[in-house]
Write a sequence for this structure.
């Protein structure tokens, strides 16, 4: 089996979608000898900010000399990004080899695993083979019944920002969504909690009490912003002065607070993470597609914002970094998103919209999105391809303008490729 065949097999079960439950993952891992039992984890759940938080934490741990695995989804440019050891994505040959090992075991199960479950099991085997000391594990969807929740109690369960997303699976209220995500809190573990609304925090407080877990609040009291520009942000944290992150937006400071609180928890458990590792890990983190400046003349920004909370954060970034500037939005989204609300907050900043269809079966068509935006009195031009959309957005913005690609993580790879062609 080569990597093309491996990915074809993995994606061949994508029609099964997301089916809540741990039984399929547990059954497959058992047939694999339970590689997850050989590993320690930091488990990260939440609606927004999971990936950025995971990337920052993994970068710091790597700088501290920890052999660290990183599991995230979705990928931005290549599937291999979803599982990394010490910042290096899995090699094609090893991805093919492990998938070939897993395939007959998965196919022999009475109830076949879904695509995400297969990928999770491949990742567990990969991390075990590479003797990772600590794996930073991002939840796929929810928490309690997500396939990543087959692990034993983690070193820390980290809960980042909770918002309204995937309501058809997780529930119609913030409290219901929080309850699903609180499922990663296991008896006796430590829980790091991003500052939430009081009714949401109450869900996690109750979960920690019921399971005898220690709650650590990652508030902003200890973090003091110093400066921000399109090149990065500088802040103080407790006695550490002048910490820097290249990730932009106020929300990334909240994520950094979660990371630093998690580091304190790990340090209390004996993990050696010196200040110089914290400084260099934060300063050198890379996490593409989050208010990322790709080029100038015009200024071209890529943001993976794909739900109302993400786009609220994008609005605050425009206010902070580009006050008074009008933006040409290159936008696409999934049909199951609340796109009417999603793009509403962008209207005051919009010069116009160029709409495209992301490369995903769940995508809303460029024509349908353009029609929705026009119905609100906006200028919207649909494009047949993402490459055409990139060219048109740059042309319409002009050399002194601003382009922002947003609405779906699934379009970032094609936008980046189109920019390279230009």
């Amino acid at each position: 089996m080569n990597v093309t065949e491996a990915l074809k097999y993995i994606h061949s079960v994508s029609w099964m979608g997301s089916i809540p439950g741990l039984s399929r993952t547990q059954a497959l891992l058992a047939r694999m000898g339970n590689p997850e039992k050989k590993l320690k984890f930091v488990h990260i759940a939440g609606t927004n900010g999971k990936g950025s938080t995971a990337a920052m934490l993994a970068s710091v741990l790597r700088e501290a000399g920890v052999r660290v695995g990183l599991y995230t989804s979705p990928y931005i440019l290549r599937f291999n990004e979803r599982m990394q050891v010490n910042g290096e994505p899995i090699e094609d040959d090893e991805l093919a080899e492990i998938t070939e090992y897993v395939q007959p075991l998965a196919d022999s199960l009475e109830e076949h695993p879904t695509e995400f479950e297969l990928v999770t099991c491949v990742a567990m085997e990969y991390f075990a083979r590479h003797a990772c000391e600590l794996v930073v594990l991002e939840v796929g969807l929810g928490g309690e019944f997500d396939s990543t929740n087959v692990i034993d109690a983690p070193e820390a369960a980290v809960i980042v920002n909770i918002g309204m997303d995937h309501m058809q699976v997780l529930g119609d209220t913030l409290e219901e969504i929080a309850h699903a995500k609180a499922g990663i809190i296991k008896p006796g573990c430590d829980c790091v909690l991003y500052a939430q609304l009081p009714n949401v925090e109450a869900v996690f407080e109750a979960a920690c009490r019921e399971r005898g877990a220690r709650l650590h609040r990652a508030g902003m009291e200890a973090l003091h912003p110093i400066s921000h520009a399109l090149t990065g942000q500088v802040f103080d944290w407790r006695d550490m002065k002048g910490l820097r992150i290249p990730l932009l937006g106020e929300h990334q400071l909240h994520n950094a607070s979660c990371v630093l609180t998690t580091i304190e928890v790990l340090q209390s458990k004996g993990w050696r993470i010196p200040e110089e590792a914290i400084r260099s890990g934060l300063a050198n983190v890379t996490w593409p597609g989050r208010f990322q400046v790709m080029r100038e003349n015009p200024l071209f920004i890529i943001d993976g914002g794909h739900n109302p909370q993400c786009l609220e954060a994008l609005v605050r970034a425009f206010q902070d970094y580009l006050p008074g500037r009008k933006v040409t939005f290159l936008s696409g989204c999934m049909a199951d998103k609340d796109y009417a609300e999603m793009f509403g907050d962008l209207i005051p900043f919009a010069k116009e919209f160029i709409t495209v269809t992301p490369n995903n079966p769940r995508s809303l068509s460029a024509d349908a999105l353009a029609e929705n935006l026009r119905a609100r009195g906006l200028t919207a031009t649909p494009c047949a391809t993402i490459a055409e959309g990139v060219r048109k957005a740059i042309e319409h913005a002009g050399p002194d303008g601003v382009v922002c690609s947003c609405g779906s993580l699934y379009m970032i790879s094609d936008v980046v490729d189109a920019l390279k062609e230009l």
